[in-house]
Amino acid sequence: MASNAPSSTSDAGLVAWLLSLQRHWPGIALCAALAAAATFVAGLHRGPVMLYALLFGTAFHYQSEEPRSAPGIAWSAGTLLRLGVGLLGARITVEQLAGLGTATAALIAGGVATTLLVGLLGARLLALPRSLGVLAGGASAICGASAALALAAVLPRHQRSEREVLTVVVLATLLSTIAMLLYPLLARALALPPQAAGLFVGGSIHDVAQVVVAGYALGQPTGDTAMLVKLMRVALLTLVVAAVALAVARGGRIEAPGKRPPPLLWFLGLFASLVTLRSLGLLPTAAVTLLDNAARGCLLIGVCALGAKTSLPALARCGWRPVVLMVGCALWIAGWMLAAALGRG
């Protein structure tokens, strides 16, 4: 009997895994198909793929209420999204960040910190939940949709959670697209030198891909600087999310009704581990490329799932105040980085 126990345990585990897969795969497959469609359309029209993913997801909102697809959609909007955020760490090395210098690092850290404060203050002035202020400030300060999704994972859950996250993701994507088009023109109009222009573009545009487009549109030196500055902002994601999680766990000033999540987050550990491994040269180029593509895929599928869980009418009911909050945060970080760039120009 004893010799059969390990086999029985293994069989039970396999059965449980197969049952879980059977329960989740329809929703995951739906979100993956939507992500593929969004990628195709974005490539065809050269538009923001995250925005297409959100819109495609909302078109299938009814599937989030279907018993067959709901579990997979919920898993994609939660666990898979967090995995994507964790895998972003493969993009970053400590050496890259050190190359910016302490003065630039301090400017970027100051921009991130003050934008978070602007989000909290703006939410208070506009009579919006503090959780929305954290999401808006974090998305504007760090890396748009990815930051909002990471922060949402540590904020207490409540009835408005998904609507708030989707609102911030949509607005961050739209504002980042506008910035991608306008900020290079502004840098040219002000005759900013390459390093100063890279500091401005990389320090103020939300999405990584759009920083690439805007930075290299101004030339190779500007693009290289913009990417390093953007990586510094992304690297601060772990610290910011950990700080918010600690504030929530201690009953700090981030208040929202609902269950408090655990302060220790596996995806932050994954993020930090990948940064460490790449910094030590233990990740070959092929592995970095694979992990980066995996991160994009997880985030894209997760955003489709997030869209599927929220209807457009519900999003429209959020009103004008979240728009004002997001625009204010975006203008603050842009003004901060532009002032720094002009000081160096």
Automatic annotation (TrEMBL):
It is a multi-pass membrane protein. Belongs to the UPF0324 family. It comes from Pseudaquabacterium terrae. InterPro entries: UPF0324_pro. Keywords: Cell membrane, Membrane, Transmembrane, Transmembrane helix. The chain crosses the membrane at residues 24-42, 97-120, 132-153, 165-186, 198-219, 231-252, 264-291, 298-316, 322-342. It is found in: Cell membrane. This is Sulfate exporter family transporter. It comes from the Bacteria.
